[in-house]
Specification:
The structure is a single chain. The chain has one domain. It is built from 4 helices and 3 strands, in the order αβββααα. A 3-stranded antiparallel sheet has the order 1-2-3. Helix 2 packs antiparallel against helix 3. The longest helix has 26 residues.
């Protein structure tokens, strides 16, 4: 999972994979860059993915750490999903930035990570 976050963070800085690369801003809803032409990104958004991946790799060294990353990270993504639903896309509060595709991906990631965290715990308990 962490490798995917690192990969997404790196690909967000690759022209061609990120459309509108020249229109990417550091932060804010004015960034017109889109990873894979779908997910709105900014420099800050890409850095957050890179940091999230690094934290996941560091925590994956132990089973409790990996579980904490999955459940805690999943909770963070669910909060981001709710934030994206509440904050208007053209609002200055949309500083990451997030678009509708990001919102629904955050829901899937949040639920999936939390489920994996609890499933991993059950497998170790047997």
């Amino acid at each position: 999972m962490s490798i995917v976050f690192l990969l997404v963070g790196v690909l967000g800085f690759v022209p061609g994979i990120t459309t509108g690369y020249g229109d990417m801003t550091f932060a804010g809803h004015h960034s017109d860059a889109h990873l894979l032409g779908i997910f709105q990104v900014s420099v800050l958004h890409n850095i957050v993915h890179l940091l999230f991946g690094l934290v996941g790799i560091a925590l994956a060294r132990t089973a409790p750490g990996a579980r904490m990353f999955l459940i805690g990270g999943g909770a963070i993504y669910l909060v981001l999903w709710l934030y994206g639903l509440v904050v208007g896309q053209d609002s200055s509060a949309n500083f990451v930035p997030l678009n509708t595709a990001d919102d629904w991906l955050h829901l899937v990631l949040g639920l999936g990570m939390i489920a994996l965290g609890f499933l991993t715990d059950r497998r170790h308990a047997r």
